[in-house]
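Notes on consecutive records. When two proteins share a document, each keeps its own sequence and its own token line. Never mix them. Below: protein one.
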Amino acid sequence: MYEGMVQGDIWGYVTGGILQESDMVPDPAREGFWIFYGPKGPTATPWPGDIWLQDLNGDGVITAGTSTVEDPGDRKIIANNRPRYRFGITADVAYKGFDLSLFLQGVGKRDLWIDNSWFWGSAAGSRYMYENSWRPDRTNAKYPMYGGGAPSVQTGYLTNGAFLRMRQAILGYTLPSQLTQRAVIDRMRLTFSAYNLFDITAIPSVFDPDQISDAYPQKRTFSFGAQITF
């Protein structure tokens, strides 16, 4: 806690990019190792495919300083993870016996840092990350070399946490009275309901966008029903 602190602020590094072989030279003292003539990062032995970070304080070394506001090292406030602009939308329409009720819910703005191993990959693996990570034959990949786990918090890999969820959709149809009265029924309404039908979001699909958790995903359910009045 510090004076002027904004709840939800994310402190992190500024991503420079992913190291390529052209950014480095072989280490003459150690066969098979590389030297990067840039700011030294937390990794003592950088490799092609590793992330490099910007040296914000100009001391030639990437560090977290003393992790205080006065000495944050090469970190700064890069985002905020508070959900902003929460909203809910309801709509009801009816036409010739049909009726439709919709409930949409979401968040208009949120910044997220995801460090979960299901996303970044670990011993268990992440197919998405594996298929989009750096390799010698895929040097323009968005993500660094696979298998390193979650990197330090940084600008290049923040996730847009905004989402729109179709929380509920109920479609109904009321049969014409001239049909139901023949069966001594005053009114019959058939319904089809869907809950958590879809999400529009940039958050990886393994996570629930509302809870940002892979432990308890929201269930998508469907149901049919009938309301009969005698």
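Protein two starts on the next line and is unrelated to protein one.
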Amino acid sequence: MIRTSRWIVPALWLTGLCLGGCGGATPILGGGVSDEALRHRVRAVITAAVQHDQAAIRCNALESLVLLDEVTAAPLVREHLREPAAAVRFAAAVALGDLRDGRARAMLEQRLSDSDDSVRLAVGYALEKLGDRRFVHWYDRALFGPDARLASQACVLLGKLGNSSLRQNSQAKLWKVLRKEGQDPIVRLQAAEALARLGDQRVTKKLMAYAGSGYADDRLIAISGLALLGGENARAMLTVLAEDSQLEVRLAAVGALGTDSDERERDMVRQAVRYVAPDGDPQATARVRGLALMALGQIGQENDGVLICRALEDDNPYVRVAAARGGIDFLERQASASARAAL
């Protein structure tokens, strides 16, 4: 059963031919795909998606743009602080914080009076990442208030801010949110994932329990938290979830296992890249393909570059952005492997 949250910025949980552009200079990733050409196509897909007419696509593209780690990323992100869609302004502010874009400081200051509460939360995040210390209690009202959407977003941002001299009590606040009587389930899940991001091993049991939820999206968030924590217990649960009855959960779990996945699991991911829902539902098809492509970025071997390249030409924009996200991880892993081999 799927229960997709409506409250946080859409995440990339969510067969096409390679129309040229994926061949080219060496070194070759496999199947005639070069690393330079794949990187070029990934960047082109993300850059196009940032201007897509669907706000959710723009949000996902902004998150992925940060991972390209290029000097050209920040100017592309800044213009989206003025977007009509609040979700895109939220994503842009978070991205600018992650990029630590000092040139955006004045624009961010203006957005402290944004009409949308969630955007103001994200602007505080961005300014704190730039060294501003005004926001120690910035998230408290959202964390403990009645709005589950804002509480979820505040949990996510606290987790991303990490442990610092300014954030010594973040874990205590998140535990209070998680244990709040009558708390909304999605807020509990986001608080648990944020605690995992902060390295709090005490949340392992909670995540293990959430991994047994009847809702697939709950299990997906649990997988994210378990992957962040690592360790034998987390790995054991991820191995169990790699056999889940829901394909989406299996894909996420295998991706989280990374190099601990086996060849049978890798083959399952490769097949899911070409998945078509039995009833032809395009959203279900895109969701599975997107998860498969992101998993492939974490576990794919040299010859799998061609699968990612082909997916970058998929008709569905979600699939294209997910392929780009997987491509970034894939290229990073290939570069690391080459560096190790050169030692």
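For the record: The first helix runs from residue 35 to 49.
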